[in-house]
Design goal:
binds adenosine monophosphate; 20% strand; Rossmann-like_a/b/a_fold; 10 helices; alpha/beta; pantothenate biosynthesis; Pantoate--beta-alanine Ligase, Chain: A,domain 2; 38% helix; three-stranded antiparallel beta sheet; Rossmann fold; 282 residues; six-stranded parallel beta sheet; ligase; 2 domains; ATP-binding; Pantothenate synthetase
Length: 282
């Protein structure tokens, strides 16, 4: 496994691979890797000749009062996990390497980046879309892999690629969970044992909501009310948002007559957790 810190070095290495007709799979991450990230890597390796993982905690997707400085980091451990997983190249740029000058060009999606999590984290999806566009231009991957856990992010990236004709195939990968259902996240390490237990309510409420929909409940407001009651009854969990939206464009849904996705955002202890579950009407 080779590690590259600069855009030029990664470009040169991947340029050689591309010239010999090899396909490139890119997995963008912010590091502190867990089994969810490694599932994206596994998929990328299965589909492509060369697998590249980027590790970059991107400052432009964090708000001023968010956890950029306390976001968990462990480069040595991440590199060992990726080497073991059979990754060919790791891209680990410093902030100055990605942003040598203040950007005058950014990408924002309207309304897709401003709704749902975009209302809680203004500017977040513009930061995400812009850094992913930069990574696509640097690595020029054949395919890029994103988790369904960050469902709005996946939708934003798919739409950006469609709108701006990026020559890359976007692959969405189902959420990898802990045994008790909690969606794996780098931020889970900051949950106390009590928080960790309380956090289970999110995946449980999502499963129950999806099961109700599959059993024939078509009224989104009714499903949301039952899920809300379940979550707010859990001590230590502060519900921030709960939505049932169209699985394709994240548009509002009142009658559940097409595939939808249930999205939840909640604060558990010091951590903002998100989770999702897709559901289909009976
Ligand atoms: P992050 O390092 O949190 O930015 O995540 C990097 C990529 O891994 C994103 O595409 C995430 O959606 C994906 N990811 C994070 N957690 C999971 C998970 N539990 N299951 C599947 N993919 C995940």
């Amino acid at each position: 496994m080779k590690r590259y810190d600069t855009i030029d070095a990664l470009r040169a290495a991947l340029g050689r691979a591309r010239q010999t007709g090899r396909t490139i799979g890119l997995v963008p991450t912010m590091g502190f890797l867990h089994a969810g990230h490694l599932e994206l890597v596994r998929r990328a390796r299965a589909d492509n000749d060369v697998t590249v993982v980027s590790i970059f905690v991107n400052p432009t997707q964090f708000g001023p009062s968010e956890d950029f400085s306390t976001y968990p980091r462990d480069m040595e451990r991440d590199l060992a996990l990726l080497a073991e997983a059979g990754v060919d190249a790791v891209f680990t740029p410093a902030v100055e390497a990605m942003y040598p000058q203040p950007l005058q060009t950014t990408i924002s999606l309207k309304p897709l980046g401003d709704i749902l999590i975009g209302t809680v984290r203004p500017g977040h999806f513009s930061g995400v879309a812009t850094v992913v566009a930069k990574l696509f231009n640097v690595a020029q991957p054949t395919r890029a892999y994103f988790g369904e856990k960050d469902f709005q992010q996946l939708t934003v990236i798919r739409r950006m690629v469609d709108d701006l004709n990026f020559p890359v195939e976007i692959v969405g990968v189902p959420t990898v969970r802990e045994e008790d259902g909690l969606a794996m996240s780098s931020r889970n390490v900051r949950l106390s044992p009590d928080d960790r237990k309380a956090a289970q309510v999110l995946s449980r409420a999502l499963s129950e909501g999806a099961a109700t929909i599959a059993a024939g409940e078509g009224d989104a407001a009714g499903v949301l009310a039952a899920m809300t009651a379940r979550i707010v009854a859990e001590k230590g969990v502060t519900l921030r948002s709960l939505d049932i939206v169209d699985a394709r464009d994240l548009g509002t849904v009142d009658r559940i007559d097409r595939p939808v996705v249930l999205l939840v955002t909640a604060e558990v202890g010091p951590v903002l957790l998100i989770d999702q579950r897709e559901a289909r009407p009976a």
